[in-house]
Amino acid sequence: MKKIILIACLLILSLISIIFLYHYRVETDVRSDQQHSDAPFSHDLLDQVYKEHVENGQVHYTNLKANPEKLEDYLDVLAGANLEEMSFAEQLAFWINAYNALVIKGVIDHYPTKSVRSVKLFGGFFSRLKFNVAGEMYTLNQIEHDIIRTEFVDARVHFALVCASKSCPPLAETVFLPETIEEQLDDVTLKFIADPEKVRLNRNENIVYLSKIFKWYETDFTEGYDGVADFLADYLPPEDAEFVLKEDVTFQYLDYDWSLNDIK
After folding, report:
1. Which end is more exposed in the chain, N or C (fewer Cβ atoms within 10 Å of the end residue's Cβ)?
2. Which phi and psi (to 5°) does residue 251 adopt?
3. Please, which residues have CB within 8 angstroms of residue 188's CB and are 6 or more apart in sequence?
4. pLDDT, tens digit, for every residue of 223-259?
């Protein structure tokens, strides 16, 4: 009887270990060594992926998982990119597109799943998946926080980066391009703030309901602005802008829906 109990305990411990290792181990997207090219970097392959598998800001992951060739080819191009030859605008467009493409890659590698939070425990989707970009290995957190937020310092990027969840910004219809990135960042910011599921004004109760993005990254909205209210006012119609700037208005943050931005 004791042997049976011991064997059962060992089996349970083995199962727990397997589950633990799955959720906590770092997964690396291995790519063959890519040669740097002197040709201008192109996001055309990713643009084709969007045209074929993205609709109304959501992704048809089932179809994309079955036909990943163009996404994989784009990731090969990312791995061999030469950032030293890129301008500021080219690098910003590069990193935004890279982040969004790698999020999609992380999802289809673990699909079917109902949420990126189900892929790894405690936000591990963003911290324990590693990808090759320009010959270096990065997690999604490193790309977002250590590169995009730190080196480019533009709060509008929060409405361009898509974490594959329903409360995230919708995926843009086209890739970001250096020659139009200023207009594109303004466009995605305007669309996000105009969405009542992300920003909603309640004049009767003097409340502004906001996406938690504004809470999580509150300090990012002080660069060139006097905080979140001032930033919002820049993208709202005059009457709404006046309302959010009132001293007696309070901000309340909406629940964040981490359900996958999947087209079923």
Report:
1. N
2. -105, 135
3. 156, 159, 160, 169, 172
4. 999 999 999 999 999 999 999 999 999 999 999 999 9
